Amino acid sequence: MNSEEELRHLKLQLEIANTEIDRLHSLNQELEKNVRDSNLTIRQAKDITPVMRPSFRRVLLLARAALLDISKISKIEGGGWLLSMGFSLRRKFKSLRQIWDLLIVDDWVLSELFDSQQPTVKPLVKLSCFRKRQFEQYQQVLSTAISFGNDDFTEYDLPYS
């Protein structure tokens, strides 16, 4: 009887092992399918490498998402880039890459981003003649509306609307 019980016990263990093997085979097939799909996605991607040299537009979009602004500093004042938040918080950087590296970090603190000593440089701002004319027109319309005591600007032709 001992041999019959041992035989029955071994058959039960064999059956359990076969079901475990079947389960592992199906899991292996699912994982192979996922790997094939991932490899296909990687092969079809244009460029999967990280950004090597970020453009001004890309850094500006990232900065504006964080309510920051970027402007170029004139070469007379040393060149580089000025990262600012409003008029009081400003920091000078030599390259866009430095700004990019700071902003892509998940958790950055505003006090760490801006130094206690603010740079005295001014951003290089070039207003085109068209923008200057628009600004002058806007000031003229605004002064006209104020002189008539009208707070409703809808009847005036604002150049920015």
Describe the fold and architecture.
The chain has 161 residues and is mostly helical. The chain contains 5 helices and 3 strands; from the N terminus they run ααβββααα. The protein has a 3-stranded antiparallel β-sheet with strand order 1-2-3.
Q: Which structural traits does this protein have?
A:
single chain, mainly alpha, three-stranded antiparallel β-sheet, 52% helix, 161 residues
Short description:
The chain has 161 residues and is mainly alpha-helical. The protein has 5 helices and 3 strands.
Number of helical regions: 5
Structural class: mainly alpha
Portion in helices: 40-55%
- For the secondary structure, the number of strands is 3
Radius of gyration: 33 Å
What form results from the Cα inertia axes? rod-shaped
Largest sheet: 3 strands, antiparallel
Low-confidence stretches: 125-129, 152-161
Order of SSEs: HHEEEHHH
Query: Could you tell me the strand content as a percent range?
Result: 5-15%
Overall residue-averaged pLDDT value: 76
How far is the first residue's CA from the last residue's CA? 97 Å
User: How would you write the strand order of the largest sheet?
Assistant: 1-2-3
